[in-house]
Fold:
Amino acid sequence: MGPGATPGKAQTAGEGLVVALCWLGAGLLLLLLPGAGGDCQQPPRFVFAEPPVPTQPSYSVGTRLKYRCRPGYTMDKDKSPLVTCDTNSTWAAQPDFCIGKSCGPPELTNGNFEFTTNLLFGSTITYTCNYGYRLVGKPTATCVLEGSQVSWDNIPYCTIIPCLQPPKIENGQVTDGEGDFTFGMTATYSCNKGFALIGEATIHCTMDENLEGVWSGPAPECRVVSCKNPEVPNGKRLSGFGTKHTYKNTVTFECQPHHLLSGSSVVTCEADSNWNPPLPTCDPIYCGPAPQFPFAKLLLAVGESSPAGTVLSYQCKPGYAAAGGKSSDVTCLDNTTWSADPDFCTRQHCLAPTIANGDVDAKEFLLESVVVFTCRPGYKLKGSSSAKCVVSGSGVDWDTAPPSCERQLCGEPPTIDNGLHNGTKATAFVHGSVVVYKCKDGFTLAGAAFLQCLAGERDQGVWSRPAPECRGGANIIIVGLFPLLLAMLIMNI
Ligand SMILES: *[C@@H]1O[C@H](CO)[C@@H](O)[C@H](O)[C@H]1NC(C)=O
Ligand SMILES: *[C@@H]1O[C@H](CO)[C@@H](O)[C@H](O)[C@H]1NC(C)=O
Ligand SMILES: *[C@@H]1O[C@H](CO)[C@@H](O)[C@H](O)[C@H]1NC(C)=O
Structure:
C-alpha cells in the first residue's frame, strides 16, 4: 500500500468525512499525500446497482461509495457494495455485488419449463406441455420487475388434447364414454346381435404431429358373417362341431386312417364369410407295386399301386418253407412303404448225403448249396463228384445221386519168361492185391517175388515194382563154379 492508504482507512468513519475532505480541496490533499495518482472521476455505472446521489465530478483517492441495488436486484450477502477510489485513480468494486431477484419456478400443471441460465431477474424460460397436452399462450416467459418484486411476465397453461366424437358405425355402437373424449381415452364398440365385429373393438384417442387429437385407428365394422358348414371328404372334425360358423370361429380337421391331410388342419371363418386358409383335403395314401422276394410269390396279382392298409398274402416258393413266427403278409403303410417280416420264408434242407469209402465236403445242406464228394485213397469215384441241393417237387433234393467209391484196379500183372505168377485165375486186382512170381524149374528168380497193387494217380492202380526175372540153369552153374575155378587156379600156382 502506498502512503494514501492511511488517510483512506481514516475515512471509514463515514461518507460525511469523505465529503468534508473533498471540500477541503484537492490541492491540500495533493500536498498531504505526495506521490498519489490523483482523484477518481465519475463513479462507475452498473446495471444492478447505482451510486449514492448526487454524484460529484471527482472523488479523492480512498473514497468509498456505498452502492444501492437497483430494483429487481438484491445484495449478494457474500459481497460488499462498497466501490473504492483506488490509489491509481480507478474505481474498484467486487463484481456483481447485487444479484437479480429470483422469480422462482413457475407453476404449470401438466407441463414443465426449461431455462438456460437461472430463474433470476432478466432470465428467460421456455414452457413445454406433457405428452397429450398442448400449450395455450406464449411458450416463453421472462423474469421481469413488477413493482418492487420480480415475477414471470407470462404463465401459459396446458390443456389436454381433445378428440372428435368416435365415428358412428352401422349395426353397432360405442359402449363406453358419454361426452367428450380426450387424449388417452378409449372408445369400445360392440355390434348388434347377429353382427360380427370386424377390426379392432377398441380405439383410443391419441395425437398427430400437429398436436391434433386423432383416433388410433378406424372404427370397426359390424357385418353379418356366416361361413358354410365345412365338409372334408375322408376327414373328420376335432373341434368346431356346430353347423353355424361366424367370424373367427375355427374348425380343426383330421383325416380318416390311411389318408393324408393336405393344406391346413385348422381353418378360420373370416370377414368375407369364407374359410381361411381354404379347407384341407384328405387324400388316400398309396404304395407302389407289390414288393418282390426271391423266396416268395404273391398269391393274387395287384396293380401298380395299392391304397394304404392293403394286405398282400405271399406264399413261399418251392424250396422254401414258412419261417416260424413270421407272417407272410405284406402291408401298405401310411408312409407309402410296404412292410414285411424279414425273410418270412427260409431255404429248406436237403438230406445230408453219405458215401462209402469216401468223404462229403459241405458247409450246409440248404437249398442251392453244393457238396463235393471225394474217395479215400485206392478208391476211384464213380459218378458226379458234386451235387447241388435243388428244388424237387414240393421239396428239395440233390440234383444227382451221390457217387460211389470203387477200389482202384491194377491191370494184369506182367508175365515173365520162364516163370509165372499166381494171379492168372483172378479176374480183377484190387488195391492191395498181391501176386507172387515163381520160376520154372532150372531157373532162378532175380528181383523181388512179390508185387502189390497200389493206389495209382489216375483211375488205375499200379504194381508196386517191376516184375522179377527168371534166369536160366547154365548161368547158375557159371556163377556157382566161378569161385571154385578161381580157387583152383590159385592153388595150382
Ligand atoms: C490500477 O488500476 C488497474 C486497472 O486500470 C488495476 O488492474 C490495478 O489493480 C490497479 N492497481 C492498484 C495498485 O490498485
Ligand atoms: C415307414 O414306417 C415304418 C413303421 O413306422 C418304419 O419302420 C419305416 O422306416 C418307415 N419308412 C419310411 C421310408 O419312412
Ligand atoms: C498168391 O499167393 C499169395 C501167397 O500165398 C497170396 O497171398 C495171394 O492172395 C495169391 N494171389 C492170388 C491172386 O491168388
Q: What stands out?
A: The mean pLDDT is 87. The radius of gyration is 71 Å. Residues 473-492 form the longest helix (20 residues).
